[in-house]
Amino acid sequence: MLGNNILIGAAGAAGADAGHIIQGSGLFDGSSGYLTNTLAADDTDGNKKYHAHFILKYADISASIELLSQMLDANNGSRIFISDNKIGVYVKTSTLKIFAQTTALLRDPAGYYVIDIAYDSAQAAIADGIKVWVNGTAMAVTGTYTQNTDHYFYDASYTRFLGRYAVSGSTYLNGYVARAFFNNGVNHSPTDFGEVTEDGFWQINEVKDITYSSSGFLIEGGVDVAAGTDISALQSMGGISFDGASGTATFTAETGVDSGSGPITILVWVNNNDATGINDGIVQIGNVQMSTHTGRLQWQIRSTGQVSANGDAITPGTWTMWTITHTTGALSTSATTLYKNGAAISQSLGGSGTPAFTSTGTIAENLVNSTYFDGKMAQLAIWDKVLTAAEIADLYGGAETYVDPQADVGDYVSSANLVHHFPMNDERGTTLTDTQNVANATLAGAYTHVTLGPNSFFPTGTITATNDSPTNDADNGYSNGTTFSPLEPDAGTLSNGNLTGTTQFFKSDMTIPKTGKWYWEYTCDAGTSASSVYGIADSTGNSSGTSQCRIIRIQNGEKYSPDVGAWQAYGTSWTAGDIIGFAVDMDNGAIYVSKNGTYYNSGDPTSGASKTGAMFTDLLTATTASGWYAAAYAGDGSNIVTANFGISTFNTAAPTDYLALLPVNITPAVINYEDEYYIEAGISHSNGSTTAVTLPTSVSGGAMARIKRTDSTGDWYVVDTVRGALPHIKWNERSFAEANFSDGSLTGTTLTLSSDLATGTYMIEVFYVGSYFQIHTFTGTGSAHAETFPSALDTAPGLMFIKYRTDTTNDQLIYLESVGNTAYLHANGDVTPITSTSIWNDTSPTTTQFTVGTNGAVNTSSGTYVLYAWANSGPYHQASYVGNLNADGPMINLGGSPQAVTIKRDVTGTWHWAMSAQVLGDNQNYQYMIPCETGAINASTTVNEFDFLSNGFKIRDGDNNSYNGSAVTHHYYAFGIQPLTDGAVNQVRAGRNPGVDRTIANGGSLSFDGDYAINTFNASGTISFDTVPEGGVEYLVVAGGGSGGENSGGGGGGGGYKTATGFAVTETTYSITVGAGGTATSGKGNNGGDSVFSSITSTGGGGGGTYISAGGGDNNGSAGGSGGAGAGSTSGSNSTGGAASPSGQGFAGGSGVANSGGESGGGGGGASEVGESATASNGGDGGDGLSSSITGSAVTRAGGGGGGTHGTTEGQRGLGGAGGGGNGGIQTDQSGVAGTANTGGGGGGDIDGGAAGAGGSGVVIIRYKYQ
What we know:
mainly beta; 9-stranded antiparallel beta sheet; 8-stranded antiparallel beta sheet; 6 helices; flat
């Protein structure tokens, strides 16, 4: 399974900081829901390049889904889709030009995928023209590719579809979309939408600082995805644009404004196209209307009278909030008040008359003389009371900023007196929604919808706004939602985002935590037969009922437990429409069941240990395989059940202290698996030399490392910090006594591979000592006894490995919890578990100790032993499953994603231990290792056999009995489980492509830009290369900027600037020096420090000159990478700027002016231009620096500092050059500004009494291709 490694933020819950919360997703139903829009005009940014970005969780992995489609017909257009679980990019212009797909498969319905696609057909090769990333990891792409193929996503003549194939409705999107983005004419980087955290996760970030093309869009969050709202450049107001000739809407006025003469308040935002109309209707109820007349607002009874604005003319093209209040009775200036933008305006009465309201409401039309409103309208609200002036003022949010009248603000309190509210924002179709009383209006005539975003879509079919999100926020109810799992081999037909099941057996895609109190609900959508069963089950649950379960069924009200073995009376039957609630108290081992909010048997879920009225009370003592799941059995097709695990509001509130069964609510201690277990492959090593591997976490607390060559034969070497890194044993060889390497180490954050190891490619695993892993050495006694771990484990061990260190005859032995304490396994054997009392003394290990029997393999008198123990919790899990020899094999739910899984078939015969690991390859290039043998990676002839998932792993092996023997028990242990509780849905560390050699240098701050890694040094340090990067490295070395001079001082020069590509490096460590900025001082400025990488030295910027009188001294700027500027003087001659020396790193500083009445300093030189010379009244500007995109984003550095001047206005000071240069001082603001840190910017010169600006420090950046 390819990597699915999203950092899900847990704002308001345990977990890492997300940085950005996505407020839910839109659930596309897979059969009718999709979005469409049509561009107003062709995008002028070209048709050979685009970038698309999606965040989605797709529910039916067996179906093809359409992401973005823009087709004229079946033979012309562009598509982005997922087919056969592969991401595809398609362009056809009569003939097929591009059909490119990823090789790895997306088959995880429980995890969100972040997909980036960069299309650039100007490139010659498919690898450069079609780039695809999943969660920041670059994917291999193959297929048909034609250079310079025009795409169609720019074309206004083609309707754009999101979620459906454009030509026909045969292919829809079935799943949750949290974000969709498109931009034409540009390729972005995945790092524009997310980033690799220091823990190695792909973190979703806010989309910002993007310049959109005319066809670009951004849709994000449940509400906006369901509505199709483009938020790339939101207008403050949407609304309806009426044509002024026939466009109108009608509604039925509700009680309160449907009769009588008042009271009433009408508020509306309008944007008139012109102000010349006569009696153009805005809204009319009965005989009275709010309208515009020759450029003024009026409250009118046609042909009898009106209250009109005296002034305050309507301004066409401008949004205005107009409000009218009327108390009751006849028109008068005391009964009626007109408001513009929240403030009362002058008004006068003409004629007379009394309003007579009826139930007939009309928008945008004067019914008496059929005159229509011409312009845009939004946010129409009507109250059956007179709002106060203070309330109306609070409802005005400012220019083009409306305030929701259904929310409280200031003096305004929303109430039932609000009779109607038609927001009109991003409406679709012919309905104007009344969000207050659902008295919707119906549009007619000529009108257009004004969308909030420039390229908003229009929804069709079923798209539901949900709180299901790739980012967790417990406070506001956002979480990666729990659903039924479609990966269970016995799962029936699922729909509604895998929440509704028809036929067969369904289990939740996450286990019920072992502690805490949990609540969820089932809705009986259809069915009355006895085969409709709800409850909980363990991992062996299936449609035939042969599972450990606690269930209740629809017929007669009965409960069942296999431990009892018969149906027992409990509760009452239910029927379609009933909602069955489950409250599971795992702390006390009880289950309570309710129907439509009333608990059966007078159950009290808050009764704690007394378990009052519980359906079952034995969960703490029941034996289960891998814990409990929420489960339901729909039986035949007449039974339909829908689950709500809490992503939607419950029908009945959860009992006190009970939480929804969602990942966001599971809050044990946060675990980052790399702090407990680390695995890395693709490490190149040469015999005769040591190889240092940098680890993410220090081994100072103790650790064990397992080392295996993967490209050829080689033993499984084991070293640890207790025995030392030189003594090693072999996991796979029984006849090998402990021996010493000649060199190597395991210390700090480094594992050093010994020079004794053969030349080749290696994989390493590191297990860190702590709550989940222990190392214990002891001396045998020959008598059965208990040994105590150095410190307690979190849970009793699920796996133990023991080795008689000096023995060459006894095998290394394995304890598995799933096998039990009466048997053992050989670490290097292929036999079934062997029963023996003499190994573990028939005693199970505990969190603090283990027991050995009398067998010499574990307890010879005076023999020395080492034992490794793994807790059955946190990042490690051990259990078993039963195979079915089917490609739809067992689904093993671990509550997180494992990095490696080792499996052993429990039958007699040659069935080896087999290990799969994410670093060994994706599921389209299946590879495994055999820990009991010396062989290289074994590439299976059958692909797609094993999927690593966000919540566990799935066996897809239909012909390999090692993993999936029919009706056979298989034992497994899983390493490196990253739990969903840590806010992570992850299957491989971000930025690391499985199966690809890594060439990442260590040192500085590491970031990624597509296939490139970047090491940035803002301070001095070292950089070490594991291997030589392909094509060498690109470097940018910027020295520290010079400081400005004092007293009409010259600006400091920018630091020396050197950059180049293709610079050769070797597998060694290089010192990095980052030059400091020149310090500010009295007198002449100081030069900046040099920056150095390898043989590359950039020279510090020159200091600025200082003012001197005729008495002598030096007011010239100093030479440097870029020269400092000359200062002002009264010595009779102008000063000169410092030269750029050595040449090629920058430019000279400008000259200062010698003038007894107005001396000024020049600007320091920058990396791209000379500093500006001063005039008698103005300081010189610093020269601009140079821009570089070495980090993936353009940044300008090494600008010169501005010169100081005796002038007094802002326009006279010398400005710092682009790239961090500081401004010079003036008489009223005397100090110079320091250059920006890590840009090499020069400091600004000051004026007497102020202080000169210091130079900015430099920076060293190294970029190289790493995959």
